[in-house]
Amino acid sequence: MAKMKFLCDAERCIECNGCVTACKNVNEVPWGINRRRVVTLNDGVPGEKSISVACMHCTDAPCAAVCPVDCFYTTADGVVLHDKDLCIGCGYCFYACPFGAPQYPSPQERAFAVRGKMDKCTFCAGGPEEPGSQAEFEKYGANRVAEGKLPACAEMCATKALLAGDGDVLADIYRKRVLRRAGRPQTWGWEKAYGADV
Amino acid sequence: MKASNNPTRDVDKGRRRGRFALLAFLGMMFLIVALPLTGYLMVGETAAQAQQGAVNPLSELWRGARQANEGYTAVTAPQANILITDSGQNWRQVRNGPLATYGAWLMILALVALAALFLLRGRVDIDEGPSGMTVERWTRSDRILHWYTAVLFILLAITGLSLLYGRAVLMPVMGSEAFASYAQAAIYVHNYLGLFFAIGLVLMVLKWLRVNIPKGHDLSWFLSGGGMLKGKHPHAGFVNAGEKLLFWTLAVAGLAILITGVILLFPQLGQSREVMQVSLVVHAAASILVITFIFGHIYLATVAMKGSMAGMVGGRVDVNWARQHHDLWAKELEEKGVRPEPAPARPEKEAPEEPRPAAS
Question: What's the pTM value of the predicted model, to 2 decimals?
């Protein structure tokens, strides 16, 4: 069984934010919400590294564990999705997520903790609505996976730093890269997201 | 000639050659032994370097990233510049683990204990029967304040417990859609009524602070189990020691609930996720403690003691009830010269039982 994963190659990411833009464009993400972001560590210092991060679709997802209404589910491909019809905007997934993936309609910080329905990366796999339907698009964005395509962010990545797809395939690609450049593997975030044995 | 002329020089030459050969031999022996040893020297140096933490600088970078080091990001969401935070996992473990488990057990055991107590003791009558004469116990403003806070408390307790335990208890019964729409309503009720409850709680604590200052006879009240275990009723003033304990629990835990509640209600104050995680655990733990105390409070005021409810409903209590449960206060009233009045003419009615927050 395939397990969909993201892998961002820090040796290749050039912080162009093309993935952020591609995501916003394809999914028509509302103003103020960014499902994906690029974080640069040691910015401006020699050896700075950039990482594109969104929902990592964790194997044992903390968001799903703490949700009071149990609105999260994992697809057969290992993608973590949620049902906006059930979401009550409590913010617990935002507290629990290690990657800061859950987003709330702008302005994010409102009085009386009114956050609105949570929004996050869907791995371009839509939501619980009919695949490809208007309702699905309006709530969750594009369902590229149903069309046999991969997430737009990874497909758009100019340096092929951001990889998306079956974890085993990604690992093979990444292993070859590491062997070629004789560096050390930096499977960024994998241990956190998928457990220690990957 | 030459040779015979310089015999000493020849001897010198021979000696010098011999000395040189010896030195060369010793030097070679030294190098033969020493050169391979330089291998140890180099190995030792590199081992020492590794021990001194000469690590791949990149691994330091990723270790920092896992420890919530901040970077730069163009996205302006709160704390978007942090790649990984571990505190969320801790929060998940605490909330779903000890907090939910021990909290549920505390409340269930409290209810079981109260049920057992009722089976053992039943309703405690007024020993000498109602006298028909009453004295004022709670003024109108006291009663309005009490019921205002009590109704809000029950609403907040039910909605709050629904958010913590609803997924385990209510959702299997109601179905996910019905429960989600209830939870949506619950969170609005909880978030908006919370501040109104806070106002009531603060006023209540301030208004009743003076009568709840602990006194010497409170200790003996506790030692005799409030008269529940031994037959003789211990001394008590206007409020007994158990009520004082409830008051101070409400004051301290209530203050914690209030502060953490405000932190959670207004995320725009700029507090971090970590602060909100801790706040939510404190909020829930303190609330469960107070709910447990309120279980006991409701039990004692409604089912356990005959004549108690009248004080908070009509404001007046029977003189015999006052002498039995609050003897020092009754004596004080007599000394002050407060004259009991006959109970209102309407037939004695059982005080209505207030709804009890479900342990769900």
Answer: 0.81
